[in-house]
Amino acid sequence: METRTVMKREQEEQSSQMSHSMQLSSQIKKKTFTSSDEEATYSDYYPIIPADLMSVKEILGTENFPRHRTWEILKETLAADEEYHRDKWTMFGNEVEKVEIDVIRNQHVLRKRVDKMALRKQAEKKASAHMKYLELLSQKAPDFPIPLRAHTVWEGMTVKLSCTVQGCPPPKVTWHKDGIPLRLSDQPWNYSLQQKFGLNSLEIRRCSPDDAGEYKVVAKSPLGEATTFATLVVNSYQGAAAGSECWQTPALNLEQEAQFGTSFPPTWVKEGDSLTLQCTFTSALLPFQQDVSWFRDGIQLHQSSNVDIKMVDNKASITLRAAHKEHEGVYTAKLKTWDGIQEHSAFVYVKDASAAVLGGPASPLSVQVSDVNRDYVFLTWQPPSADGASPVEGYYVERCDLGQGKWVRCNVHTQKMCHYPVFGLKEGTLYQFRVCAVNKAGAGRPSKATEPILTADPLEHTRTTVVKVDRGRTITITKDELEGQVKAPFPPTNVHACEVSDTYVVLSWAEPEPRGRETLNFYVERSLEGKNSWELASLDMVVNSPRFPVFDLVKGKQYCFRVRSINKYGISDPSEPSAPISLGKPQAVPAPPHSLMAIRDTDTSVLLQWQEPKDKDDILGYYLYYNEIGKQDWKTVNNKPFTKTRFIVHGLKTGREYVFRVKSVSRAGNSSYSEESCPILVRSAIYVPSAPSAIALLLCTGSEMVLGWRAPAFSGGDPVRGYYLDQREKDMNTWREVNIQPVKERQFRVGNLSNGHFYQFRVFAANIAGVGKPSEASEAFLCEKWTMPEPGCPYDLGLREVRNNSLVLLWAAPLYEGRSPVTGYLLEISQGDQSDSWTALNDKPISDTHYKVSGLQAGQTYCFRVSAVNEAGVGCPSLPSEPVTAQTKPGTKNIEIGVDNDGFIFLGYEADQMSDESKFLWSKNYTEAIDARRAGTETKKNKSVLTFTDPSEEDLGLYTVEMSDNSNLSSSYDFTAEDLERLKELSWQVRNPLIALKSGWQVDVSEKGDVRLWLQTESLSNTAELRLIFNDREISSTPRRKINFDKAKGLVEILFDQLSQEDEGSYTAQLRDGRAKNQFTLVFVDKKFRETLALADAKRHDHQRKSGPYFQEFLSWSVNEDCEVVIKCKVTNINKDTSLKWFKEGTEVTQAVYDQSSGVSTLTISQVTKKEAGSYRAAVSDKRGEDVSTLELLDNEYDKLLQQLSKQCALSAGPLSIQSTAEGFKLYCSFKYYISYLKTSWYFKEKRIDQEARTKTGSNMQNVWIEILNPTENDKGKYTLEMFDGEETHKRYLDLSGQVFADALLEYQRLKQAAIAEKNRAKVTKGLPDVVAIMEGKSLCLTCFIEGEPAPEIFWLHNDREIVNENQFTITKEPKRSSITVNNVNMADSGKYSIFVRNQYGSETADVTVSVYKHGEKPPANAVEMG
């Protein structure tokens, strides 16, 4: 038996495998070792034993063994192969029979153990059920049979508070002191808590007044809650009782817990960018608060590769390294507190990234992968919110094999629905998937890629079972081991459609049993319903998974499908055909929502509500869109479908009107737009105002009190319409209304009071939404007539124009002046919102009731108070102002001063926040009203203008403006005498305007020689007038001089066809347009006029020249890379009759080349000499005219050409080379072309080489060289050739040393020896002709001259044989000459005669052909006749 170690499974899976049957086939089940207490219905099942542990006789001979066709096939297979397998199976059975006894013994042991365990579990289960039953009978809500009782102790004593609690289940008990949970860890030395058998005791050692208070015990359980109270009074030795009414005992000194400080607002981030949200806390986090949790749409976020959560000091932050549309939603930060959980939430909007193509759609989102198989997955996604320039037509699906890193498109045709089956994947491979939307503009940006998906067989784990045996061993049993020797697989079962779309069908089936122990593949066949003509649907595709998508079905037709299994042993029979399957109907897009309603929320947000459509089953969510009234620019609100029907749209502009619309989202696409909402103006919703504050007593007469208070910090979006007051006497609990009708002012006289009594007051503010919360109760004011000599306190402190470094403080004079009138005020400042340290702002009292405080620190918080002064002294200070932070708010505007279009001086102020009830309040010096006779105000939208009627010194001063419902929006301007003078001048200019000049007089000359004088002003109206003055007389248009006036462009033009001397002078343009006027003068004389006239004549002549063929490029020369001089010109405006001729010094040059198609003509000079200098002329002509171009190639121009040619020659120079000769070394440099104008110098070791006996220089048209005669070792070194072209020096180098020198010297010696040998070698110099003729019978004498040292040996040959017959031949030999005489020649003497000379240095042969002819014959024509 094969035993394999497998991974340990969970206890539940192990128990399930031990108590349930394992699927063997569709009909047979076997059960693991059954205990005796299990149900009788399992008696027909048998223990699982691998097939290789059972003998063949047992398997096939057991009659009562439950049968399945698998065993019949196995039996048939064995019978067919009986002869082949008989010996093998017999041996195998004999060996296995030896093991059977041990296996059966182990079965009995295991059965006993299982029985014992089952009995134990059954007993424990019954005992547990009985205990639960008893608990249910005894359940009881919490109760205190003995409650806490009050105690009074002396300071320093020990006290024990005790109570008993009952309840089932036992309740959880908590202690509280003065309503705050009691934390024993704060004072472990002082508190001791005991809980035993329902008795709960709290022992307090060494009681102090701080321990006095109300103690509470709370008992909680699922059945309810019970509470008991008791008061602890601690008597002090000083006589006061802690915990009594006259002694306020502080609560338990708990550590100050942190709260949210500044938090993140609604945030926008572009797709793909990083996002960071941060919130700060009011103090350091306590230990139990350290874990700040972050959530998105209620789901907690954790640290990951894309999410970074940090907690530094008192700041918590979360960062998304790459934000995608899937990350859009409500983000929440949760903080633990003593009372529970405090949280802050804000919506994060993820905007679409830039389109991949212009007009392309946005990216889809939420791509999900399901039904993962060996070669198949199923994808779903959500459509994008933005279609682009045209509706989305479909989607492309892409996959990426992570091993290759390349994205590949899965579908050829676009998929309209937001789901798609991906087939043909590789098993055991990691893939990622993404989707692109497509419209007419092209494919948009891809979606966020899915997480890596591993393709695998999802049923693999079901084919393996692990059985535990004794001593911790396990037996792994697979289905394949139970299939015996089955090779060919069985057919699949349950063929059906698991996904049906209007474009495809996905088939699914169950794998066959048995499978055949080998890897399975499948063939898919199909046939039209009612026909039995089956065709292969999978074609050449390999189907590895029990899933197969079919795309090529015909709509309206029904098909049946069947599947065959395949392994390496063969193909199974086909499965049972499926039920008829056809393409589904196209899924319709959902209906749009309706009843869209926009509701005011804040000054930057709007609440939207809508009704979902009736058919809402397939709706995934909703997309929202908004547009500002007056624009046609619809923008997307959310890019992730929102599932609810209520949404707050953030990021809107205050005071702007918007309309909204909504789409439904489904897998079939987005619906059409809903109807637009009604336009809504963005502003805060109206709430009741907040509570007033700072109630102050301003005056008391003994029976009346005058009270003042501070306005609410928030008016609720509507102006406060009035105030209501309540009063009560001190120590009374009942409040009584003071006024029934609302009070408009923040000051009220309360009458009918009793002298000598203390009174408290509270104030309510009311607006159109209702009455707000009351203020905190004032301090107890004594009703007693004021008689003190000092003044009372100022009141109604207000703050205006708060900026980074300054603010303005306002206040009202005290109602009670004291013994004498108020003479001034002293101001004090305190830094921090709760500081008691006050610093004087002014040393001397000021008389105004306003003061500008400067020198503040930006971001710091300040409080202010004011005291009045009279002759008796300084009165009591006012209540402190509200804490204010020195900071300029975004959008803060200041008063602007200027002059309007009518010339009136004005002051203007623009508010960035306004409501319908908002009003601009203008004043002078903060208190004086504006005199309507001297200035008037006008308000348009959010801007107010104060316009002066006739400003004078009487109007100078400080002007202020503020909003009626928001004093934080305020500004001031000090109108000074300098401003008045400056603006009066500007006002005069506006009322008496000048026409502005854009461009002064300009003079242009056209290509035809026309002259244009022009100027341009600002745009003029149709009523504008023009007068042109030339030399003090008005002119108008004439045929020779035209005048144009374009009023819309402000353009004045004077056009001259042909400028002449008569046009010299000054030109003045006088313009008038309504009240505006101006004039501009051009002085067109002297040098400026003469230059313009000459330029016009030249251009006119040039234009006339171009009426026929003309030179577009005149004659010019250049030097090419081959050191050739090229003279070139180009003509244009030519035709077939046009001719081009070249001349030099009046003589026509025929070597020029002319390309009529391009108009280019060239003359190439390959070698430049003196004769090339001269005057060149080219003439082009036809019937229309003639044009001439000349080139003077003389003097300086010729020198310049030589210099350029020399430079090009130098640039063409190759590297220095060495050549050995018989005389020595020859160093040379090759050129494409060399001229003597290029000066050359040779240097050896940086020293110039002068002409001497051992060196010779030379040159020709291709080379420059220097010869070194008889070289020695002293000639080793660096040689340099310098070439000077007249402007630059060019150099070439050769290092003649080392092996280069050695090789050259060796070659020189060889050539020298060869020259000596050649000089002394034996040779025939002259004397013998090639052919001679002689008549028969005559004598022939041949003579030749000889050289050689030493004197050479001489031999004469006849027909290559040496002549030795001295009778017929006479041979003479001299040092420098030799001859042979042939006596009485005959025909036999004809042939070749040769002389051969030789010495120690070499030899040479000279030949002559002798032709003998008879008397009367003619000698050969090519022969020299002798004799």
Secondary-structure topology with pairs:
Blueprint: H1 11-19, E1 22-23, E2 29-30, H2 56-61, H3 69-80, H4 82-138, E3 140-146, E4 151-154, E5 159-168, E6 172-177, E7 180-181, E8 191-196, E9 199-204, E10 213-221, E11 224-235, E12 241-242, E13 267-270, E14 275-280, E15 293-296, E16 299-300, E17 307-312, E18 315-320, E19 329-337, E20 340-351, E21 365-370, E22 376-382, E23 394-401, E24 406-409, E25 419-423, E26 430-439, E27 442-446, E28 453-454, E29 464-468, E30 474-478, H5 479-482, E31 493-500, E32 505-510, E33 521-528, E34 535-536, E35 547-550, E36 559-567, E37 570-571, E38 594-602, E39 605-611, E40 621-628, E41 635-636, E42 646-649, E43 657-666, E44 669-670, E45 680-681, E46 693-700, E47 705-710, E48 722-729, E49 736-737, E50 747-750, E51 758-767, E52 770-771, E53 781-782, E54 795-800, E55 807-812, E56 824-831, E57 839-840, E58 850-853, E59 861-870, E60 873-874, E61 884-885, E62 896-899, E63 905-910, E64 920-924, E65 935-940, E66 943-948, E67 957-963, E68 966-975, H6 977-991, E69 997-1005, E70 1011-1017, E71 1025-1030, E72 1033-1035, E73 1041-1046, E74 1051-1056, ...
Parallel strand pairs: 4-11, 13-20, 94-101, 94-102
Antiparallel strand pairs: 1-2, 3-5, 5-9, 6-7, 6-10, 8-9, 10-11, 11-12, 14-18, 15-16, 15-19, 17-18, 19-20, 21-22, 22-25, 23-24, 23-26, 26-27, 26-28, 29-30, 31-32, 32-35, 33-34, 33-36, 36-37, 38-39, 39-42, 40-41, 40-43, 43-44, 43-45, 46-47, 47-50, 48-49, 48-51, 51-52, 51-53, 54-55, 55-58, 56-57, ...
